[in-house]
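Researcher: I'd like a candidate sequence for this fold, 239 residues long. If you have to choose between options at a position, lean toward the conservative one.
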């Protein structure tokens, strides 16, 4: 898959609306990076990261994973790394420009642009299945994933929202499938004010939403990760 990413005035206007400009087209296989965690801007532990599993299918699924407020990509990687390795998934883990994502602090723009650029770079380097490009996140990252995923629903086939608080999506495209999990005792983003309000609204709009409540707090249990990723890619057969 080749990515087309051009910084044009049209792209800049789109970023302010939460719209990604990256476009894809099928190409032949390309050399892949070595397995492991790659800090894409040279800042280990604090910058954006790309996680490459030891084995990739011919057409890999790609998950864009967004951290919560005050978080770092390094803190998000462990949530999905074991499952990504078992299923042969690429993980792109961006970093917000500030303590949390731009729309939460005033409006779409710089973080959309950064994700656009990082997506283009990954799609240009790897053979990715265009039907399995996924966006997900935890807490504020889940809210941002819901927002960008709905706005860019023709790019993202699935949205994974672990304990979201809200969404900002004035325009919608496509009909991505949505997974939402939330702890019933969450003290940070209480489920009654958040997911139990968001999910019915999305279902009323015709979205297919898999909503899982669990007996926990503000967290991402391993079984919720497994359930979220099962439709994206089955486990690779060992041997």
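Model: Candidate sequence:
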């Amino acid at each position: 898959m080749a990515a087309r990413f051009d910084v044009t005035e049209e792209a800049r206007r789109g970023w302010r609306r939460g719209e990604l400009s990256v476009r894809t087209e099928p190409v032949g296989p390309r050399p892949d990076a070595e397995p492991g965690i790659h800090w894409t801007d040279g800042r280990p532990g604090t910058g954006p990261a790309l996680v490459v599993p030891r084995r990739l299918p011919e057409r890999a699924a790609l998950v864009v994973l967004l951290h919560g407020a005050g978080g770092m990509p390094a803190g998000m990687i462990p949530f999905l790394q074991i499952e990504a390795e078992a299923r042969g998934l690429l993980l792109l883990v961006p970093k917000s420009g500030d303590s949390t994502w731009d729309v939460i602090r005033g409006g779409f723009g710089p973080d959309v642009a950064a994700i656009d650029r990082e997506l283009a770079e990954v799609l240009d380097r790897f053979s990715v299945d265009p039907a399995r490009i996924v966006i997900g996140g935890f807490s504020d990252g889940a809210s941002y994933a819901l927002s960008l995923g709905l706005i860019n629903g023709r790019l993202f086939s699935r949205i994974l929202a672990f304990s979201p608080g809200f969404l900002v999506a004035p325009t919608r495209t496509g009909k991505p499938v949505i997974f939402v999990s939330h702890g019933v005792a969450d003290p940070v983003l209480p489920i009654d004010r958040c997911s139990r309000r968001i999910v019915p609204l999305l279902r009323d709009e015709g979205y297919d939403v898999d909503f899982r409540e669990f007996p926990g707090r503000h967290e991402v249990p391993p079984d919720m990760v497994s359930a979220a990723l099962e439709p994206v890619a089955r486990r690779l057969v060992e041997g």
